[in-house]
Amino acid sequence: MTTASDHEEKVLRYRVGQRVVHATLAISFLMLLFTGLMILWPPMAGLAAGGTSGIIHRVGAILFMAVPILYLIVDRRGAKELLVESFTYDKDDLAWFKHMGQYFLGHAVGMPPQGRLNAGQKLHHAGVVITSATVVISGIFMWYAKGSLGATGLAMAATIHDLSML
Questions:
Q1: I need a labelling partner for 100 at 20 to 30 A (CA). Which of 109, 120, 130, 154 fits?
Q2: Quick check: 135 and 166 in contact, CB under 8 A?
Q3: Is 49 exposed, middle or buried (0-12, 13-18, 19+ CB in 10 A)?
Q4: At 66, phi and psi to the nearest 5?
Q5: Long-range contacts for 69-77 (Cβ within 8 Å, ≥24 apart)?
Q6: Using one digit for the tens of pLDDT, what is the confidence trace for 82-139?
């Protein structure tokens, strides 16, 4: 384990509130993942007996939707900074992508300068935001509008929902 010496500048990457949001989202994601697999995947279907997994799935879904909204309310500035940074790329980010192989192989010498997040982390954050939105929107359709979607609409919503979780 490496630690910064007393003379090195430490960069606070995520504030406490952001770490709490991350942990809560991770817990709700795991709830959704495992209960979704119980509902969808035959080898785990036996664990879904009695409808408890569906209830846990909905509780996880409510957490998954509520936490980012609360984060936007409680730390509007931090949320905005993270979103803007995750979707803003410059020439140094493009150069980072060109050299990311070196980075992943542990040869990060001479990498272009980066801010709080490197280009790969920005891309990951942006992908999480986009796929989370598609999971939430498709899940709302499946939860509240499945009767009016028809078979094709429900199949589309389920496909989008499932693919977004990959």
A1: 130
A2: no
A3: exposed
A4: -75, -40
A5: 71/17, 71/18, 71/21, 74/17, 75/15, 75/17, 75/18
A6: 999 999 999 999 999 999 998 889 888 888 999 889 999 999 999 999 999 999 999 9
pLDDT in tens, 30-84: 999 999 999 888 888 888 877 888 899 999 999 999 999 999 999 999 899 999 9
Please check whether residue 24 is in contact with residue 63, taking contact to mean a CB–CB distance below 8 angstroms.
yes
Q: Which token pair is 83? A: 């979103």
Question: Rounded to two decimals, what is the model's pTM?
Answer: 0.82
- CA dist 18 and 99 (Å) reads 29
Structure tokens at 163: 């693919």
